[in-house]
């Protein structure tokens, strides 16, 4: 195994939109959503919207069909498959919900690429209505992080994953995200890790303003081609730095993983790793 954990945000990172807004808009409830948005916490809002859509006669299948049409760049799907083939441990940390994420991943044929999905629970009740609950029940207690929304601190999730890596024998982490709630986890990354913020999105702006707070390497991306190229180049660079690989042994990989490494990373040798995002002057 490559000993690399790759953590993805979902909305506007794996898919090219916000899944909550997409479902609301496609099912014709945008006006009510905009009316209620300033009045309640976001998880409560989405739970309320699902109740309204159910009252309007929208079914589970209607929601699934909308999710199957969500925009996504084909190279992002291929990048995920390639990283998984190379032996990376892929995980999701997202403020969407389990039903939306799993439905989309299954439709794209990449559900089994991910070992873990950390997100808000989305389950159907006995009446067939989708219920959305917060990842962290902020009505009972606070998670204690002032940077993050009350229902989820992604930084705490990353700390939990990091604590597990020692026992699992994994060494390095790559994090990809776009939103302001992806800034907190970027602060938890170590100097041997990498952050891939989406350029001109909130987390990229926060990192540009606070670059000195991050220990990790930072490589920005803009679109699906960037996503694939930069992610595979970083994975390639980590693998080649491993002393086991340098010493000419193949213990790092199974034979299948080694063949995948040779074929997938061949293109990466044609371009250098993108320059690190540095502190602006």
From TrEMBL:
GO molecular function: metal ion binding; phosphatase activity
Top-level taxon in the UniProt lineage: Eukaryota
Catalytic site: 9, 11
Sections of the chain in a coiled coil: none
Alphabetic keyword roster: Hydrolase, Magnesium, Metal-binding
Cofactor: Mg(2+)
Gene3D superfamilies: HAD superfamily/HAD-like
SUPFAM superfamilies, alphabetized: HAD-like
Pfam family, one: Put_Phosphatase
Positions with a binding annotation for substrate: 20, 95
Iron listed as a keyword: no
Keyword Magnesium among UniProt keywords: yes
Residues at which Mg(2+) binds: 9, 11, 178
PANTHER family: LP01149P, PHOSPHATASE, ORPHAN 1, 2
This protein's name: Phosphatase
């Amino acid at each position: 195994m490559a000993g690399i954990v790759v953590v993805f945000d979902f909305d506007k990172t794996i898919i090219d939109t916000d899944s909550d807004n997409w479902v609301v808009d496609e099912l014709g409830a945008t006006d009510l959503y905009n009316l209620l948005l300033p009045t309640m916490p976001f998880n409560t809002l989405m739970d309320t919207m699902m109740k309204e859509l159910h009252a309007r006669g929208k079914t589970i299948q209607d929601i699934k069909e909308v999710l199957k049409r969500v925009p996504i760049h084909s190279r992002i799907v291929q990048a995920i498959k390639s990283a998984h083939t190379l032996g990376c441990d892929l995980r999701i940390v997202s403020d969407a919900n389990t039903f939306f994420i799993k439905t989309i991943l299954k439709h794209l044929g990449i559900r089994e690429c991910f070992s873990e999905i950390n997100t808000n629970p989305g389950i159907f009740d006995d009446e067939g209505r989708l219920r959305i609950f917060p990842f962290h029940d902020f009505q009972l207690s606070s998670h204690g992080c002032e940077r993050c929304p009350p229902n989820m601190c992604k930084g705490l999730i990353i700390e939990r994953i990091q604590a597990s890596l020692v026992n699992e024998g994994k060494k390095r982490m790559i994090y990809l995200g776009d939103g302001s709630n992806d800034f907190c986890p970027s602060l938890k990354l170590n100097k041997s890790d990498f952050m891939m913020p989406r350029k001109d999105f909130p987390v990229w702006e926060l990192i540009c303003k606070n670059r000195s707070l991050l220990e990790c390497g930072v490589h920005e991306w803009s679109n699906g081609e960037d996503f694939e190229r930069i992610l595979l180049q970083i994975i390639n660079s980590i693998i080649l730095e491993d002393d086991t690989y340098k010493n000419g042994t193949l213990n790092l990989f199974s034979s299948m993983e080694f063949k995948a490494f040779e074929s997938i990373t061949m293109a990466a040798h044609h371009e250098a790793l993108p320059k690190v995002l540095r502190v602006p002057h």
